[in-house]
Amino acid sequence: MRLKDPFSLKAADMTKRTNKPRKPRDEESSDEVSGLTCQHVSKAVDLSSVKKSVLSNVWVVCSECLKERTMIDEEPAASHDILVCLKCGFQGCNQSGVQHSEKHHQAFNPESHCITISLSTWKAWCYECNEELSTHCNKKALAQTLDFLQKHSVKATSGNVFLNTAKS
Questions:
Q1: What H or E segment, with its residue span, contains residue 100?
Q2: Residue 163 lies inside a defined structural domain of this protein
Q3: Using only C-alpha atoms, what is the Rg of the chain?
Q4: Where is the UBP-type domain (predicted)?
């Protein structure tokens, strides 16, 4: 098999600094969604807000169930498929009947509070596109937020993080 000589390419196809062929780029830089493009990532992911919220709230507990003192099987509604809003860090449950995560999405600007990450599966979901998102795509913010949440989870579950449980 014969490879095309990079020096035979046109100057427009070459990068200036390396003289290597330029990789084709999508017109719109956003995350791939099962072959589609999710345009909500740039508006719906705010790592600094997520960090602030996660570090100041109880970890892996639905904020609304905590306020309402919702119990499931005589346990606080914790770790029952908690989703984190990537705009503000709200932790909401994804339980049928309650759906605090979806209610949060609907209560605020839907386009900016539409992307969540499940703390049990680490999968990202866009409510507006109604699709799972790949976290290893063009937008670094999505992958960086996932990385932060996973590292925080390890610290929190190993007892290195003190949880703020004094909520009024």
A1: helix 100-107
A2: no
A3: 20
A4: 36-153
